[in-house]
Amino acid sequence: MEAGQSLGPELRSQIARNLHAHTRIDLQRPELRPAAVAIVIVPGPAGVPAFLLTRRNAQLSQHSGQFALPGGRVDPGEDAGTAARRELAEELGVTLGAERILGQLDDFATRSRYAITPVVLWGPDVHALAPNPAEVALVYRVPLAELYQPEVPILSQIAESEAPVLALPLVGTHVFTPTAAILYQLREVGLEGRATRVHHYEQPVFAWK
């Protein structure tokens, strides 16, 4: 992504073109429950291109208090794009039509036995957010430029796995895989057109359940 790039048609075309050219990993594993998350490209501070990131309500039964992209299970009869848009509306009050879908990144299999499909959506007109307090504690507009910090990606080892854990330095803390891996692939594939895979990265142990 070029420095100072605006949230305009050129960026939309760039992301859509890169996603279309990417041969994505499409997990067809019956032991995994299908889920989808929405990566929504929106105006950030001073109008710079950004994405929406949430912190989950601390009272939720799964992954409480963790940083996440809007999303959840794919219901019967839905595809990933429909599920991501539904969850976006339920969690943040943002309704976007199917024509706003730019493409999808690789499916990611989580330790909690979900197959997450990341759906990239175009939302330059998304100014008002209405977070659902039952699900969302905080919502951030994170500039895409934050994905280009010099320490990205941060890799570390844990005793429980041979695979490295990937983290990103965002919103004054570290955001971990799977969210971090998905956002890193957004940078690599969606913004840069590089065929970078992230499915092999590990999650921290606190995210395994």
Which secondary structure elements does this structure contain, and how are they paired or packed?
Elements: H1 9-21, E1 33-43, E2 49-56, E3 67-68, E4 71-73, H2 80-92, E5 101-104, E6 108-109, E7 114-122, E8 136-143, E9 154-158, E10 161-170, E11 173-176, H3 179-191
Parallel strand pairs: 1-7
Antiparallel strand pairs: 1-2, 1-4, 2-3, 2-8, 5-7, 6-7, 9-10, 10-11
Keywords for this entry:
eight-stranded mixed β-sheet; three-stranded antiparallel β-sheet; single chain; globular; 3 helices; alpha+beta
Q: Concise description?
A:
The chain has 209 residues and is of the alpha+beta class. 19% of the residues lie in helices and 32% in strands. The chain starts with 8 loop residues before the first helix and ends in an 18-residue tail after the last helix.
Strand portion, in percent? Answer: 25-35%
Please mark out the parts with pLDDT under 50 across 5 or more consecutive residues, or reply none. Answer: none
**Category by helix and strand content:** alpha+beta
| Relative helix content | 10-25%
Total DSSP E strands = 11
Average pLDDT figure: 92
The first-to-last residue Cα distance is: 35 Å
The gyration radius over C-alpha positions equals: 16 Å
What general outline do the C-alpha atoms trace?
globular
| Secondary-structure element pattern, one letter each | HEEEEHEEEEEEEH
The number of helical elements comes to 3
Largest sheet: 8 strands, mixed
